[in-house]
Amino acid sequence: MSRVVLTGIGMVTPLGNSAAEVLEGIKNSRCGIGEITRYDASDRAVKLAAEVKDYNPDDYFDKREQRRLDRVTQFGIIAGRRALENANLTREYLSNERAGVFVSSGIGGISTIESEHAKGMSRGFDKVSPYYIPMAIINLTAGNIAIDLNAHGSCQAMVTACSSATNAIGEAYRHIKHGYADIMFAGGSEAPITELSVGGFTSMKALSLSQNPNRASIPFDKKRDGFVMGEGATVLVLEEYEHAVNRGANILAEIVGYSDTCDANHITAPCEDGKFAAQAMVQAIADAGIKTCDIDYINAHGTSTPLNDKYETAAIKRAFGEDYRDVLVSSSKSQIGHLLGASGSTELAMTIISMQAGIVPPTINYEYPDDACDLNLVVNRYKEAEINYALKNSLGFGGHNASIVVKRWTE
Q1: How high is the pLDDT of residue 411?
Q2: Residue of 409, 295, 302, 403 lying closest to 352 (CA atoms)
Q3: What are the C-alpha distances in Å from 60 to residues 15, 26, 82, 94, 267?
Q4: Strands (E), 351-399
Q5: What pLDDT score was predicted for residue 311?
Q6: Which residues form the Ketosynthase family 3 (KS3) domain (predicted)?
Q7: How far is it, in rounded angstroms, from Cα 146 to Cα 99?
Q8: Alpha helix locations (H) across 252-364?
Q9: For residue 99, how far is the Cα from the chain centroid?
């Protein structure tokens, strides 16, 4: 079986639009959360979100393209282009059946669904846009990226809620590992800061009601009260090792392990004992051919909801045994909010960027320890450390659990 390396990163995030910008944000403990500007939230219970800053679609798409592409797909295409450039690849190079796209989303074109429904209600449903369906359906973010990149290999969109991007990367890893492709563009895109989407998560008591951007997304903090909605996209370039070496690629990290499981327990709540999330971690570590004591850092799912952080702590303890006391843990959602189906790829990219810089990203704005979340947390400021192996967790509604192990690249 083939080795799988990472050779490119493309990002559109609340913290920045390149690895350099995001690393600067990590080092400065910058928070990407602020007041919602996508709509008037003055009379809404939730007033904060982690929006992509200063985004102007005119910089990337002409007016005709904008009328055909939902915001979620725009983000995905931009991230794909940036990943292509970062990997020093071209559209011409990809014009074969050995390059594919696995890019996911949890919600897809929700803003188009809302606007076209409003149009149908006022003008009649036969008057909705002929582009409504291809703008709304989740798979066409991946499909449009493939068209934009000229990638003719397998093109799929795994929809597993907040585990979507991690599953996409994991399945892309397996796709290359077992010889089906040489290059895969994998990750997630999400644009859920809309009235209906935020309203739905508000009504189910999932979102923080804090009006202080620095105390809204506070994973593992005793006073956490919900997550903060985020938006953006991150696409990673996965490549077969020999293929990468032969073309002189700049290798950023190696993906060495992956597994996913299902709680099969509840539509939203994770298992209290963390059994199956722990199983995903254990199996991913076994797939990497290492032991729990070899993992230096866990980038947790860490949503800042009361149940997730408590039960993810239980899962980490169950998976790692006494080794849990030594492994460093943090949640990047403290800085970027929760990008739902794009959270896994964005947080994995933040992990890899930090590994390269010799640091561990922090859980910022942490004040009150919680005995139920007594992990070896890196809080408020990054920690200098050599991370050889890192584990990324993603846990989604429906009981989806996914874990990926990455190894720091050394020649």
Answers
A1: 73
A2: 409
A3: 19, 26, 12, 21, 38
A4: 359-360, 376-377, 383-384, 389-396
A5: 97
A6: 1-408
A7: 9
A8: 275-287, 306-320, 333-336, 343-357
A9: 21
User: What local confidence, expressed as pLDDT, does residue 97 receive?
Assistant: 85
CA distance 44 to 16: 27
What's the structural domain count of the chain? Answer: 2
- The pLDDT of residue 410: 87
Summarised one tens digit per residue, pLDDT across range 65-84 is 999 999 999 999 999 999 99
Q: What is the pLDDT of residue 348?
A: 98
271 is catalytic: no
Q: Which residues of 59-86 are buried (b: 16+ CB within 10 A; e: fewer)?
A: ebbeeeeeeebbbbbbbbbbbbbbbbeb
Query: What residue type is assigned to position 229 of the chain?
Result: M
Structure tokens at 191: 């644009």
User: What parts of the chain have a pLDDT lower than 50?
Assistant: none
The residue range of the domain holding 188 is: 4-246
Q: Closest Cα partner for 194 from 184, 202, 183, 186?
A: 202
Assigned domain for 65 exists: yes
Q: Which of 190, 222, 246 is the last residue of a domain?
A: 246
Determine the Cα–Cα distance for residues 270 and 276; give it in Å rounded to an integer: 9
Claim to verify: residue 217 and residue 282 sit in the same structural domain:
no
Query: What type of residue is 236?
Result: L
Among 31, 162, 271, 373, the active-site one is 162
